[in-house]
Amino acid sequence: MKNFTSVNDVSNVPDLVDQAIEIKKNPINLSIGSGKTLGLLFFNPSLRTRLSSQKAAYNLGMNVITLNVDKEGWKIEFEDGAIMDQGSQEHIRDAVEVISQYCDILGVRTFAGLQNREEDYQEKVLSSFITHATVPVVSLESATLHPLQSLADLVTIREQGIVRPKVVVSWAPHPRALPQAVVNSFLEWITKTDTQVVLTHPEGYELSEKYTQDVAINKNQDQALQGADFVYVKNWSAYEPYGKKISADSSWTITKEKMALTNHGRFMHCLPIRRNVIATDAVINESLVIKQAENRVYSAQTVFKTLLEAQH
Ligand code: CP
């Protein structure tokens, strides 16, 4: 593994999930990261990704340095050849080359702007980091993917011990237009495991075919939920027209009545969650969401360990 930005950086997904489960049993391993530094750069807010990455690094004996680029750093220019006589003060090339000297692994969070689909789906910001970094780059959620979350989600599903589970991925309403990163990423990871996956969403919320080609789609949520072992729920904005909120249909909110259609299914969400909008309190309070967040530590730790071992 050279970088960790998508499932394509992983040679064997079930093996990586097994490694995370093993690490969780005995997480403190200070020698691997002793004298090494994890750099964390945030262009967007975070609770779980930031804290779980820090904890994972400490479990490995690493130091951690963090910069909220959007609030604390210079305004960064991303265009090659730009004449920087306007607002931006530092070029991405210089910034990343400098930060690479301070770190052994560099994590970056950079959300979709939701203004320009081509720019977002080309991962303009993350690609700039990969181009100019001299150390491995880890996605802390990019414009289109959230691989550390997906690995934690697969660990959480595996821990339930259900053979070939039915996993239903459902859209749910939200007051704002959100990126597609979490659902894209979950689909590309879950389809690498032995599961039956069904995607359900209202008309108009079709995702990029890149992420749905191996997935059954049923736009009737109640039908899709029948017999589900896991109900993975997320809001996302439209892929076409890109980044738009085209429905706020509260009949898609996950309720106890909807969960009763499943096979004693377990509700999952990456958090943060808008309670009584995405799902009701009763559903969330009995769900796997806290376990998912716990497993973010072991997901990050597995990835950092793999990258550090590759540097030896
Ligand atoms: N699930 C997740 O990535 O949470 P944060 O945005 O709080 O990091």
TrEMBL record:
UniProt-annotated binding residues for N(2)-succinyl-L-ornithine: E141, H174, K234, R274
Function: Catalyzes the transfer of the carbamoyl group from carbamoyl phosphate to the delta-amino group of N(2)-succinyl-L-ornithine to produce N(2)-succinyl-L-citrulline. Is essential for arginine biosynthesis.
Enzyme Commission number(s) of this protein: 2.1.3.11
Record's keyword annotation contains Amino-acid biosynthesis: yes
Coiled coil regions in record: none
Official protein name in the record: N-succinylornithine carbamoyltransferase
Domain Aspartate/ornithine carbamoyltransferase carbamoyl-P binding positions: 2-159
Family annotation (InterPro entries): ArgF'-like, Asp/Orn_carbamoyltranf_P-bd, Asp/Orn_carbamoylTrfase, Asp/Orn_carbamoylTrfase_sf, Asp_carbamoyltransf_Asp/Orn-bd
Pathway participation: Amino-acid biosynthesis; L-arginine biosynthesis
Reaction catalysed by this enzyme: N(2)-succinyl-L-ornithine + carbamoyl phosphate = N(2)-succinyl-L-citrulline + phosphate + H(+)
GO molecular function: N-acetylornithine carbamoyltransferase activity
